UniProtKB/TrEMBL annotation:
<feature type="domain" description="HPt">
    <location>
        <begin position="156"/>
        <end position="242"/>
    </location>
</feature>
<dbReference type="GO" id="GO:0000160">
    <property type="term" value="P:phosphorelay signal transduction system"/>
</dbReference>
<dbReference type="InterPro" id="IPR001789">
    <property type="entry name" value="Sig_transdc_resp-reg_receiver"/>
</dbReference>
<dbReference type="InterPro" id="IPR011006">
    <property type="entry name" value="CheY-like_superfamily"/>
</dbReference>
<feature type="modified residue" description="Phosphohistidine">
    <location>
        <position position="195"/>
    </location>
</feature>
<feature type="domain" description="Response regulatory">
    <location>
        <begin position="10"/>
        <end position="124"/>
    </location>
</feature>
<dbReference type="Pfam" id="PF00072">
    <property type="entry name" value="Response_reg"/>
</dbReference>
<dbReference type="InterPro" id="IPR050595">
    <property type="entry name" value="Bact_response_regulator"/>
</dbReference>
<keyword id="KW-0597">Phosphoprotein</keyword>
<dbReference type="InterPro" id="IPR036641">
    <property type="entry name" value="HPT_dom_sf"/>
</dbReference>
<keyword id="KW-0902">Two-component regulatory system</keyword>
<protein>
    <submittedName>
        <fullName>Response regulator</fullName>
    </submittedName>
</protein>
<dbReference type="GO" id="GO:0004672">
    <property type="term" value="F:protein kinase activity"/>
</dbReference>
<dbReference type="InterPro" id="IPR008207">
    <property type="entry name" value="Sig_transdc_His_kin_Hpt_dom"/>
</dbReference>
<dbReference type="Pfam" id="PF01627">
    <property type="entry name" value="Hpt"/>
</dbReference>
<feature type="modified residue" description="4-aspartylphosphate">
    <location>
        <position position="59"/>
    </location>
</feature>
C-alpha cells in the first residue's frame, strides 16, 4: 500500500509576517498537505526553482518585491505551477493587477481556515481526507476574540495558543516600527507595518488591536488614533502575563 504521506501535495507559502505564515502553514498541514515557507521574493524563488510544487501561495507585498514580481519571474523561466495570492488590501485595482498577472484567486487577510482550504481545493483538487469538526469555542474577551480564532484554526486551541505566543513576541517590534515611522512623518512606512499587523491580528483573534490598527491606518496623522493604537498594544501584551 502506498504511504499516505507520499500522496500529500506540497505547497510553497510565501508570507513575511511570522504570525500569518504560522497560521497559514498550520491550515495547509491540516488540508492535509506538506508546505515549504519563505518570507521574501529571493527565498521563494530559490525554493520554487529547486523543487516542484502543486501550488504557490504568494503574499502580494514582500520586503524585497511583490507577489506579482515573483510570479512574473518564475513564469519567464517556464514554470506553470498554479498560484493564489493573499493580501490585506481591499483595493480593487490591486486585485485586478493580481488577476491579470495570472493568480487564480486572491484571498483577503484575515481569512478563515475554510477560505484557504477552499482556495487550495479549487486550485489542486479536494483534500484527501475529511477534517475533524470544530470544537465548541470559549467566550471571547475585550482583547481576544477566542471564537473567531478557534474557528480560523478548525477548533484547535493548541494552534491558537502557539500562534498567539508568536504574535505577542513580534508585537513590541511592530509597535515600535509603527510609532517610530509616525514620529519621522513616514506614514507610508507606518501603513506598511500596519498592513501586515492587521492580517495577523485577524488570524489570532486580536480584536481590540485590529480595530486600533484599522483606525490608525485610516488616519495616520491623528494623534488620538496613535494613542488608541499604543493603548491597544499595551492591553494585548498585558494578557501574556495573565
Amino acid at each position: 500500500m502506498q504511504d499516505a504521506n507520499a500522496m500529500k501535495p506540497r505547497l510553497l507559502l510565501v508570507e513575511d509576517d511570522p504570525a500569518s505564515r504560522a497560521f497559514m502553514a498550520a491550515v495547509i498541514a491540516q488540508f492535509p498537505a506538506d508546505v515549504d515557507t519563505a518570507g521574501s521574493v529571493g527565498a521563494a524563488a530559490t525554493l520554487a526553482t529547486t523543487r516542484s510544487y502543486a501550488l504557490w501561495l504568494f503574499d502580494s507585498r514582500l520586503p524585497d518585491g511583490s507577489g506579482i514580481d515573483l510570479l512574473i519571474r518564475l513564469r519567464k523561466q517556464g514554470d506553470t505551477t498554479p498560484a493564489v495570492a493573499h493580501t490585506a488590501s481591499r483595493d480593487p485595482d490591486e486585485h485586478a493587477a493580481l488577476a491579470q498577472a495570472g493568480f487564480l484567486a486572491t484571498l483577503i487577510k484575515p481569512f478563515a481556515a475554510v477560505e484557504l482550504r477552499d482556495a487550495i481545493a479549487a486550485a489542486i483538487g479536494p483534500a484527501p481526507v475529511a477534517l475533524a469538526p470544530a470544537a465548541e469555542p470559549d467566550p471571547g474577551s475585550s482583547v481576544w476574540d477566542d471564537e473567531s480564532a478557534l474557528a480560523a484554526m478548525n477548533g484547535s486551541q493548541e494552534h491558537v495558543t502557539i500562534l498567539r505566543e508568536l504574535f505577542l513576541s513580534e508585537l513590541p517590534a511592530q509597535r515600535d516600527a509603527v510609532l517610530g515611522a509616525l514620529d519621522r512623518g513616514d506614514n507610508d512606512a507606518a501603513r506598511d507595518t500596519l498592513h501586515r499587523l492587521k492580517a495577523s491580528c485577524g488570524f489570532v483573534g486580536a480584536s481590540r488591536l485590529k480595530a486600533a490598527v484599522e483606525r490608525l491606518d485610516a488616519a495616520a496623522a491623528d494623534a488620538a488614533a496613535a494613542e488608541f493604537f499604543a493603548d491597544a498594544v499595551r492591553r494585548t501584551l498585558a494578557t501574556s502575563a495573565s
